[in-house]
Design goal:
Layout: E1 2-6, H1 16-30, E2 34-41, E3 48-49, E4 52-63, E5 66-72, H2 76-87, E6 91-95, H3 102-109, E7 113-118, H4 126-139, E8 144-147, H5 150-159, E9 165-166, H6 173-178, E10 191-195, H7 204-216, E11 222-226, H8 232-241, E12 247-251, H9 255-264, E13 267-270, H10 280-288, E14 292-295, H11 298-301, E15 310-313, H12 318-330, H13 332-347, H14 351-371, H15 388-391
Parallel strand pairs: 1-2, 1-6, 2-4, 6-7, 7-8, 8-9, 10-11, 10-13, 11-12, 13-14, 14-15
Antiparallel strand pairs: 3-4, 4-5
Helix pairs in contact: 1-14, 2-3, 7-12, 10-13
Length: about 400
């Protein structure tokens, strides 16, 4: 088939949705499909770069306690019609289909089979509820819906009711397993690793307070902080005013160095306070063999099981977080057990399996439309056969 992956975020800038799109692009091409990525530009990027098609401009805006992107162009309707008319996609796969405006305009103009993946989870969102009413006509253009977790499905279904298939994010297991620890941090002091945007919902300040409590017990450890964001100045000030040793702010790092840092970690900690639809950083830590301490929040429960893959603690509470860190730092056997179970768990989320499940869902949607005589005008590919019994591709991952 000819497939278009539509992302409202400026590709390939870093981010969970764009990482998902990149791996899905590779996986679908590896399975023999002709794939394009439709996105916006940011700055002076070219309008077309190989299989990347850019329409309009992307602008950063605050959203869901983080920073999101709005894409805009006064000529969107015309540009989108031109691209769709030229490319004639059999299937368009929209990631966050209702983020203004690229995905929404493209969905409304599409004459292809339309599948959407819902990545977000934001708890109660009255503003989204009001907007969702206006989006329901556009939602009727969707032929299939995927949610990356049970939390994301619950959130999307609350405002846009429908049938959702849960297919989680994936992880490149082999890349993390092959990474080499950084010798710089291999000096006998255990390393606690934090990776994330430095913003309130990621919980770094709670981790800093917990790390201070750990240090007060006399247990030696180092905290490696990877990421940047609006809370960085406050975090650095907290460390400086209390003269805390053992904290290293590493800022943004390359993908290659991030892999090595995960392999360097003796403990990975994600103290997020909520609004996480899925724990991709948990998958990365498990693939690298790092035992985990993380918050007991909805988006993480589909990835790890309590005391089997991670130690879970109440979000926003310092002492339980410190106690869990101390428990792991003092118990090498527990670290080994969690690391082994985590590696096995991460294999279930390998992109080969996730890509197969997405492809199988495409086939399910297309066969359903064909049986109803409702295939859209631009769909010209053969209807995929049902291979579920042969491949098991539409099976489930426990914990979804």
């Amino acid at each position: 088939m000819k497939i278009g992956l539509v992302t409202p975020y400026v590709y390939p800038l870093p981010g969970g949705v764009n990482d998902h799109v990149a791996h899905l692009y590779d996986g679908l091409r590896g399975r023999g499909h002709d794939v394009r990525i439709i996105t916006a530009s940011h700055g002076l990027q070219r309008s077309s770069e190989g299989d990347v098609i850019r329409i309009g401009k992307g602008f950063s805006v605050p959203a869901n306690g983080s920073v999101g992107t709005l894409t805009f162009s006064p000529s969107y309707p015309r540009r989108v019609r031109e691209v769709l008319g030229r490319e004639r996609f059999d299937l368009l796969h929209f990631h966050e289909p209702f983020v203004p405006f690229l995905t929404l305009v493209t969905l409304q103009a599409s004459r292809s089979v339309n599948v959407a993946t819902f990545h977000a989870y934001a708890g109660f969102a009255p503003g989204y509820q009001a907007v969702a009413r206006a989006l329901r006509p556009a939602a009727r253009n969707l032929h299939g819906r995927i949610a990356v977790s049970a939390a994301a499905r619950h959130f999307a279904d609350r405002y846009l009711p429908g049938d959702y298939r849960v297919i989680p994010n994936g992880v490149d297991v082999d890349r993390f397993a092959r990474a080499v620890p950084l010798a710089r941090w291999q000096d006998g002091t255990p390393n606690i690793l934090f990776v994330g945007r430095l913003e309130e919902r990621k919980g770094l300040l709670y981790l800093l307070r917990a790390f201070r409590a750990v240090r007060r017990t006399g247990v030696e450890a180092r905290l490696l902080v990877v990421g940047a964001g609006p809370q960085e100045r406050e975090a650095r000030r907290y460390v400086a005013t209390r003269r805390m040793g053992g904290v290293e702010f590493l800022g943004r790092v390359s993908d290659a160095e991030k892999l090595q840092l995960f392999r360097t970690a003796d403990v990975f900690c994600s103290p997020a306070t909520g609004r996480e639809s899925f724990g991709i950083v948990l998958l990365e830590a498990m693939a690298a063999g790092a035992p985990i301490v993380c918050s007991d929040i909805h988006g993480y429960k589909g990835v790890v099981k309590r005391d089997e893959h991670a130690l879970l603690v109440p979000p926003g509470e310092v002492q339980p977080l410190a106690d869990a860190l101390l428990r792991l730092l003092r118990d090498p056997g527990l670290r080994t057990r969690l690391a082994h179970a985590g590696r096995e768990r991460s294999v279930e989320f390998g992109w080969d399996r996730i890509g197969a499940r997405v492809e199988a869902y495409y086939g399910f949607v297309i066969r359903r439309l064909a049986a109803a005589g409702a295939l859209p005008a631009d769909f010209r590919a053969p209807v995929p056969p049902d291979r579920r019994t042969a491949t098991g591709a539409e099976g489930t991952i426990t914990g979804d």
